[in-house]
Write a structure and sequence with these properties.
Distance between the termini: 11 Å
Number of strands: 8
CATH topology: TIM Barrel
Order of helices and strands: EHEHEHEHHEHHEHHEHEHH
Shape: globular
Number of helices: 12
CATH class: Alpha Beta
Largest sheet: 8 strands, parallel, barrel
Strand order of the largest sheet: 1-2-3-4-5-6-7-8
Bound molecules: 2-phosphoglycolic acid
Radius of gyration: 18 Å
CATH superfamily: Aldolase class I
Number of domains: 1
Strand content: 5-15%
Length: 307
């Protein structure tokens, strides 16, 4: 949970304790035809409460037996206070149904992909209706492995269309964005994130954002053990919020949860959880072990930093 309270927004650097209101001029690119967020004001009274969310992306890993064992280990932890933390696990498609049947009921299940349209003659695809039918409530879309793997190469527009399809079927979406190492080194981090988000903003309505969680995942930090520094993370998250104020509206900027992803582990999650604009994590490798419970527990660090 993170509150934005008072003070001017900094455009670089991060404070682990500050909770900020934005009242300043635009600091990030706003696509043409949209207004800048110069008049934006975010405050607690405007409803700045964002429940911490931890997602586990199992990618193309685990077997049916391994999932059963992991779910048993995860069941040992106390019940979630779901007003303080939400947990969503994303198994490979063939194990969605099984995972839903063996996973504790206070954790939700996400698919890692869906087809852009309805059921029909689409060999190898999985429609949103089918995902819902087996008890999934979420889908991860726009993951960098689907954007960037040369065999897949999903475009911004395709991902935005899939997101629209998911939302129209009542699925919530973890919408992943992030820059490659090359793009960061060329100083294009924000341009890339804005381009990816703008494709979505053009495709869904302002009311649809309530079911979207953004996962900022710098590609160079995924699966590499190279974690972005707290300053790097907060700077991008804050600018994403600023962008949302300009391209969508203040309410969406204030209420949309922004997760960080990329080599998150029990060892680094507590420091990152305290950042004002970090509302949870999307976790790959570290979600394959029972110690993932320690990442979930980092919501307490977020609450402790909330003033
Ligand atoms: P990682 O993956 O935690 O293994 O870096 C994160 C992700 O790809 O979502």
């Amino acid at each position: 949970m993170a509150f934005i309270t008072s003070g001017a927004a900094a455009v670089s650097g991060a404070s682990l304790t500050a909770r900020r209101a934005f009242t300043g001029a635009a600091v990030c690119p706003v696509p043409s035809g949209r207004t800048s967020p110069a008049a934006a004001t975010w405050s607690m009274s405007a409803g700045g409460l964002r429940t911490f969310l931890v997602g586990g992306n199992w990618k193309c890993n685990l077997s049916k037996d391994a999932i059963t064992s992991l779910c048993k280990e995860l069941a040992a932890a106390p019940d979630l206070e779901t007003d303080k933390v939400e947990v969503v696990l994303a198994p490979p498609t063939p194990y969605l149904d099984h995972t839903r049947s063996v996973l504790r009921q206070d954790f939700e299940v996400a698919a890692q992909n869906i087809w852009v349209g309805g059921p029909g003659a689409y060999t190898g695809e999985t429609a949103a209706e089918m995902i819902k039918d087996v008890g999934c409530t979420w889908v991860i879309l726009g993951h960098s492995e689907r954007r960037n793997l040369p065999q897949i190469r999903e475009s911004d527009d395709f991902i935005a269309q899939k997101t629209k399809t998911a939302l129209s079927h009542g699925l919530k979406v973890m919408f992943c964005i992030g820059e490659t190492l090359e793009e960061r080194e060329e100083g294009r981090t924000l341009d890339v994130c804005v381009r990816q988000l703008h494709a979505l903003a053009e495709t869904i309505g302002a009311d649809d954002w309530k079911d979207v969680v953004i996962a900022y995942e710098p590609v160079w930090a995924i699966g590499t053990g190279k974690i972005a520094t707290p300053d790097q993370v907060e700077e991008v998250h804050e600018k994403i919020r600023h962008y949302l104020a300009g391209d969508v509206n203040d309410k969406v900027a204030q209420e949309t949860r922004i997760l960080y992803g990329g080599s998150v582990s029990p060892g680094n999650c507590n420091e990152l959880a305290q950042l004002p604009d970090v509302d949870g994590f999307l976790v790959g490798g570290a979600s394959l072990k029972a110690s993932f419970l320690e990442v979930i527990e980092s919501f307490k660090s977020d609450l402790a930093a909330t003033v």
